[in-house]
Amino acid sequence: MLVAALLLALLAPISWAAPVPSQTTCATPAAADQQAVAAERGLVKGALMDFGLSEKDAASRVAQLSDAEVHAIAADLSALQAAGATSTEQWDTLTVLLLLILVAILAS
To answer: Is residue 52 included in any domain, yes or no?
Structure first.
């Protein structure tokens, strides 16, 4: 029995492995860029819809943007606000207001 098992083990077919080229989703870098821009446009459109725009309005506004503008907006989506000042501008406004009130109190 042991001899039969060894004989079968030695007669097993030999298999060879070779490297397999990686599969790419895009044939050219230009196609990859187009896919990236399409994905970024989707992100920006989604952010605009989160701010309350309808899907149609968001799509039309994103369509008006150049690829560079879409990339710039998509790169910093966390800093976008629906309207108004950024948090540092609000702080500056509050500081100026408090200083004016302080000056008015001290002047009287």
So the answer is: yes
